[in-house]
Amino acid sequence: MNWVVAADGKRIFHGGDTVFYGYWWLIANRLGPFDAAFLPINGAVVDFPHLRPASPLPADLTPEQAVVAGTILQARQVIPIHYGIRVPPFYVEVDDPATAFQQAAKKYDMATTMLAPGEAIDI
Q1: pLDDT averaged over the chain?
Q2: How far are the Cα atoms of 2, 49, 70 from residue 74, in angstroms, in the given order?
Q3: pTM for this one?
Q4: What is the C-alpha to C-alpha distance for residues 37 and 26, in angstroms, rounded to an integer?
Q5: Parallel, antiparallel, or unpaired: how do β-strands 45-46 and 10-14 relate?
Q6: Within a domain: residue 123?
Q7: Which residue has the higher pLDDT, 55 or 113?
Q8: Is residue 71 in a domain?
Q9: Where is coiled-coil annotated (predicted)?
Q10: Domain holding 99: CATH number?
């Protein structure tokens, strides 16, 4: 589920648990640009007993996908969310998602802010 919050001349996109899909351009054209995009970066592969057959594909954006999505959304910065969670074998994220995200942000020249749990940011 995704949502947009707009207030006081600022516009923020929150990507929740989302995957890379073709609506990024539509969202950008209708609602962008964004001052910040909060996007998941863990690229988690899930294998829950009640979800059969299991999928080998990520259930959330990978670090690079998050940066690319932020670029398409015309976000001034991408703020990573939903990473640092390990519950193998049911929920396995990519190796070192924070570092992979920072490398992707540099590759695509995307500004980013890495927040600690509970930390706030002024947009």
Answers
A1: 95
A2: 16, 38, 6
A3: 0.93
A4: 15
A5: unpaired
A6: no
A7: 113
A8: yes
A9: none
A10: 3.60.15.10
State the total domains in the chain. Answer: 1
Residues in CB range of 2: below 8 A, 6 or more apart: 13, 14, 15, 16, 18, 27
Structural domain containing residue 72? 3-112
Is residue 61 situated within a structural domain? yes
Complete DSSP assignment for the chain = --EEEEETTEEEEE--S----TTHHHHHHHH--BSEEEEE----EE--TTS-S---S-SS--HHHHHHHHHHTTBSEEEEES-S--BTTTEEPPSSHHHHHHHHHHHTT-EE-PPPTT-----
Residue 79, in any domain of the structure: yes
* Residue 13 pLDDT greater than 90, yes or no: yes
Give me the pLDDT at residue 95, please.
93
Q: What percent of the chain has pLDDT over 90?
A: 83
Residue type at position 89: P
